[in-house]
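Problem 12. The chain below contains 149 residues. Write out its predicted structure in token notation.
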Amino acid sequence: MRDGGNLLSQAHQLAGRAFARVLKRHGIAALSPGQGRILYALWREDGIPQGELASKTKLEKSTLALMLDRLEADGLVDRVPDPVDARRRIVRATDATRRLDVAYARASEEMIDVFYRGMPESEIDRFERSLRRIIANLEEDEAGARGAP
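Solution.
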């Protein structure tokens, strides 16, 4: 029997705790790894619809909405009506969030070093290709499940 799903789950839990420690060392302990994922997406492309942000972060829309509530209350994001479609909300990083970008980038680099410690580039490349394939398989399965009766 294969153990990939269990191993991914364990890696996810351990990586989350490790990243929380790294964030704390970089002075951004108030930011959870999940919130960091949202802000990272906004640093790459700011001012995007909430639904698109859910897709980019792979978060369920309801989970994202709750996390955005907290980030907005903390002054880290703004949600404004889409000027083209008032039913949609645009999510933007605030100036306070942009100041975290450099510290978060340094924390991410440290986490990458921890994550890949002792692995040659060829092994990292293979690993990341495999993860992308697993993600594509899971997304395909999820799309099929939404279309199922």
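Discussion. Residues 11-143 form a domain with the Arc Repressor Mutant, subunit A fold (CATH 1.10.10.10). Students who got a different answer should revisit the alignment rule from Section 12.3.
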